[in-house]
Amino acid sequence: MLDIDRDQAMAYRIAAQGLHRDSGADPVALRVFDLGVQDDQRGSAELALLARLDGDPAPAPGDDDRLVLAWSHRGAPHYHRAAEFRALITTLPPWDAADAAARLSWQRRDLAAAGMPADEAIRTAAQALRDVVTRTMTKGAASEAVTKVIPDGLSLWCRRCQATHIHDQLMRLATPLAGVALEPGSSPATLVPLRPRPPLARRPDPRAAAEVVRSYLRLHGPATATEAAGFVGTTKAVLTRTMWPDDLVDVSVEGRRGAIPADAVPLLENPPEPNTVRLLPPKDPLVQARDRALLVPDPAHRKEVWKILGNPGTILADGEIAGTWRATRSGRRLDVTMTALLPLSARARAAAEDEAERVCAARGTESLRVTWT
């Protein structure tokens, strides 16, 4: 077993995720797309690329036809390489009813209301979405149409919408299985059928599913099966039985045992110095790791980084998540408020402000005002 300390693990992850900007200016070359880059309506994926790419500003992922946006891991919107997306779809069907219930976060009452096992519910919804979404449709229009053709137990009354419609998470999990992606930059969310349509995904491909876990371990390792399962959205029992790769090396991080793919060991043993300063968005791949205590050891600081609602961006400085940041737009000016959680040198603060200038350019604003708190 390989023994390392936390500093070495952090240095490895920073390098593995391309935060040294050593991948040039081509977003498709970034290793984070091996797993996918989560997005939200504030453009978090664009800022994640900005933190990793040369060039000013970095290209918007929605403008690159080599990338596709879809509900994928945990039903969250992620950008993926378009050339690999059809293979990824084959990793997303549930393995069995228990796996499906875990991915849906369904309780016994939900299963009783559905009147069918959870995996059958996902397949039923996927077939209905495939039949209904034959053209570009807003999420609301697709939801309304599919609710009319699915069994009553797969829909519910929504107080916010004041309407009965398909369970939201059920729709998110079923949509990629139906061969449907999302239109980048659209609000509300808009569904787009893939052309040509792939076959309806009913059963997972074990080899492709193991590659998803391998990518998680390569980007977020050393990590445990529990942590990988948390990212995928299933349980440890399901993941270890169906998706856990067999070409792994055991690693101890200050007594905490994890694993990493064998081909990642050379970088883990000799990572470059993590002397970079980057502004990361709330959904950045680095903070998607499930071992938050390794990323941010101080419990009080973790509460500042991961909030119940409205996470801030984070300041990565010299191997640590050393602060948070938020940006608001006032006309043509971008106001960025930075909060240090750890002591920051004058050099690190200056570098963070330089990164804010890049964010300003990416957001299309003309002037920047930075405030430290």
Structural class designation: alpha+beta
**Helical coverage, percent range:** 25-40%
**Rg value:** 21 Å
Work out the helix count: 15
- End-to-end separation in angstroms reads 43 Å
Indicate how many domains the architecture comprises: 3
Low-confidence stretches: none
Apparent shape: globular
- Whole-number mean pLDDT: 94
| Biggest sheet statistics | 5 strands, mixed
Number of strands: 16
What is the beta-strand fraction? 15-25%
The main sheet orders its strands as 12-13-14-15-16
Task: Give a short summary of the structure.
The protein has about 375 residues and is α+β, with helices and mostly antiparallel strands.
Describe it:
It contains 15 helices and 16 strands. The protein is an alpha+beta fold. The strands form five sheets. A five-stranded mixed β-sheet has the order 12-13-14-15-16, with helices on one face. A three-stranded mixed β-sheet has the order 1-10-11. Helix 4 (97-104) crosses helix 6 (118-132). The relative contact order is 0.14. The model has no long low-confidence stretch (mean pLDDT 94).
Notable features of this structure?
single chain, 373 residues, alpha+beta, 3 domains, five-stranded mixed beta sheet, three-stranded mixed beta sheet, 15 helices, 16 strands, 37% helix, AlkZ-like, Winged helix DNA-binding domain-containing protein
